């Protein structure tokens, strides 16, 4: 049996050595030993990526034991933690100090280092991805040397989204905000109206996202706004309807039916979209942001200039209908603020992200290939942790600081200790000039 597999169970790895050091020294020792043995090394988080970022190396370094709270600075709202901490545990620690992350993605099972390495993001026009909340970090390079990268060191903007290609991050210091309560409001609405009003909704709400159901004229919208109220954690029944409908039981049911009878998908989607109903909750921010995702799917997500979001959504829905594609998973649309991180998909771009999914077991190849062809006309940058066919030759044209990242990579990993086949494809070879 393979030593490792990813969340969607589509990728496996059987490295010669799987290590779980408990601090920077242990990580550095593992890298130095790999150097002596001529082995390649991949750092691994919680395996929630869909791309083979961590496979085909002789040594896998799992940061699960680097998950401690190292320091809290309440005056400046900062916390330093072990980089392998899971986001759920991090949020729990922060809540204990009445602090929070300003924004989060839609699950909290990933590790901090793994999530930030691929530019994991939530939604909200005023908020960058999770990596923008990193103030400083500690990194073990390809020769086992330790670097502290902080404000003023421009390599920090290389390391905040790093694909595990620069080294192994062992500690992260975060910029935080005071704990806050969100009012989350989910409801279904006519898709055409939501598409028309998209810019206004994005501007009006702290966090806005939509899910468009293929073959249906309905969309599910989700808004999260700050309220001055104490959190009201949900009882076992109240959160059930939309949450479970969108994430688990109904999707699992339709995915099963859809796998057996793809022809039934358009009708199933219309039923689910119409039944989703309305749901309000008022709770601590991290509990409102994160959902359960129990049904296995595979995914591609593309970051485009925000103005291109609704045109691209329309083109994707038309593609699905024209080709009668068996897609029973809604298309998710989110936003993010522009940032300065060299390989962030939102680099210098007020961004929108469109995510397409299909359940594991349903064909996705034709769908994702078609969406990619449409999206690249809008200068799409793919999410680094999700499926995409782009290669370094194409990606370098999309990132103005590409060469700077390549230089930082060559400096920090001159021997290609952290390279693997996938990184060769998406970043190119390490060029230690
Ligand atoms: C159900 C589900 C929901 C998701 N929701 C979202 C979402 O809302 N928004 C979003 O943007 N993405 C989302 N994703 C994608 C996910 O956040 C990313 O793929 C993320 O990178 C996974 O983190 P991980 O801890 O599992 O890391 P892994 O997938 O294990 O690794 C990811 C990358 O991080 C590197 N890495 C890990 N640890 C270190 C380290 N210590 N130092 C340096 N590099 C390291 C690895 O080498 C690899 O390149 C979702 C994925 C799933 C499966």
Task: Please give a structural write-up.
The chain folds into three domains: 4-62, Uridine Diphospho-n-acetylenolpyruvylglucosamine Reductase, domain 2 (2-Layer Sandwich), CATH 3.30.43; 69-178, 2-Layer Sandwich (Uridine Diphospho-n-acetylenolpyruvylglucosamine Reductase, domain 3); 181-382, Vanillyl-alcohol Oxidase, Chain A, domain 3. The model has no long low-confidence stretch (mean pLDDT 93). The strands form five sheets. It has an eight-stranded antiparallel beta sheet, sandwiched between helices. Strands 6-7-11-9-10 form a five-stranded antiparallel beta sheet. The chain has helices spanning 24-37, 87-96, 112-117, 156-159, 191-204, 240-247, 249-260, 265-275, 285-289, 309-323, 365-376, 392-395, 402-412, 421-427; strands at 4-5, 12-13, 17-19, 41-44, 59-62, 69-73, 78-82, 99-100, 134-140, 146-149, 168-175, 177-178, 181-190, 207-212, 218-227, 279-284, 297-305, 331-336, 351-359, 381-382. It has 433 residues and is an alpha+beta fold. The protein starts with a strand and ends in a 6-residue tail after the last helix. Helices cover 31% and strands 24% of the residues. The structure holds flavin-adenine dinucleotide. Flavin-adenine dinucleotide (FAD) binds at residues 7, 42-49, 53-54, 63, 83, 105-107, 110-111, 113-115, 117-118, 120-121, 162-164, 168-169, 293, 383, 385.
């Amino acid at each position: 049996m393979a030593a490792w597999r990813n969340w969607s169970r589509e990728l496996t790895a059987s490295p010669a050595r799987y290590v779980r050091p408990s601090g920077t020294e242990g990580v550095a020792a593992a890298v130095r030993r790999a150097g002596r043995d001529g082995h390649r090394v991949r750092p691994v988080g919680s395996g929630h990526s869909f791309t083979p970022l961590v496979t085909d190396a002789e040594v896998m370094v799992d940061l699960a034991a680097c998950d401690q709270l190292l320091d809290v600075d309440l005056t400046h709202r900062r916390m330093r933690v072990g980089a392998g901490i899971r986001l759920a545990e991090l949020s729990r620690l922060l809540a204990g100090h009445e602090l929070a992350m300003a924004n989060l993605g839609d699950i909290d099972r990933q590790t901090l280092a793994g999530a930030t390495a691929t530019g994991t993001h939530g939604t909200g026009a005023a908020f960058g991805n999770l990596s923008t909340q990193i103030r400083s970090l500690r990194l073990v390079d390809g020769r086992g040397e330790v670097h502290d990268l902080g404000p003023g060191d421009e390599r920090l903007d290389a390391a905040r989204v790093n694909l595990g290609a620069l080294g192994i991050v062992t500690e992260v210091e975060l910029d935080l905000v005071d704990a806050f309560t969100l009012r989350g409001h989910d409801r279904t609405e006519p898709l055409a109206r939501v598409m028309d009003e998209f810019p206004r909704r994005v501007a009006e709400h702290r966090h806005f996202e939509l899910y468009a159901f293929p073959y249906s004229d309905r969309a599910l919208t989700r808004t999260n706004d700050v309220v001055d109220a104490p959190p009201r954690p949900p009882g076992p029944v109240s959160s059930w309807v939309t949450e479970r409908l969108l994430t688990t039981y109904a999707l699992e049911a339709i995915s099963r039916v859809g796998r057996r009878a793809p022809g039934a998908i358009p009708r199933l989607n219309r039923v689910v979209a119409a039944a989703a109903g309305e749901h309000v909750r008022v709770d601590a921010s991290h509990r409102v942001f994160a959902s359960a995702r129990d049904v296995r799917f595979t995914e591609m997500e593309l970051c485009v200039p925000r103005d291109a979001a609704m045109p691209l959504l329309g083109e994707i829905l038309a593609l699905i209908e024209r080709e009668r594609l068996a897609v029973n998973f809604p298309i998710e649309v989110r936003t993010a603020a522009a940032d300065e991180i060299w390989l962030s998909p939102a680099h210098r771009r007020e961004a929108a992200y469109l995510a397409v999914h299909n359940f594991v077991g349903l064909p996705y190849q034709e769908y994702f290939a078609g969406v990619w062809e449409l999206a690249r006309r809008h200068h799409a940058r793919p999410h680094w942790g999700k499926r995409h066919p782009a290669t370094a030759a194409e990606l370098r044209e999309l990132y103005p600081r590409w060469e700077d990242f390549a230089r930082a990579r060559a400096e920090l990993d001159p021997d290609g200790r952290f390279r693997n086949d996938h990184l060769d494809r998406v970043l190119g070879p390490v060029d230690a000039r």
